[in-house]
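Pasting as-is:
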Amino acid sequence: MKKILVVDDEISIIRATKRSLKEHYEIFTASSGKEALDNVDLTGYDIMLCVQIIPSLYSLLLYGNTCITVTVIYLVAP
C-alpha cells in the first residue's frame, strides 16, 4: 500500500483528507512543514499532500539543502 503524508495546520482538514483516502492508502499526518520534513526521509512516503502552501515547508523544499525523494502535491483553492 502506498504511503501518503498529509500536511496541514488545521486538524479538521487533516481528518477529512485522511477519511477520504484511507481505503486506498496508508495515511500519515503532520501539522507543520518542519514536522513533515523531519519525518519524510525516515518513513519513506510515496507522496506528500499539502492541503495548503505552508511557507516554511515551501521555502525549505525550494531553497533548503534538503534532499528528499518524494512527490509533493499542493492543493490550493482558487
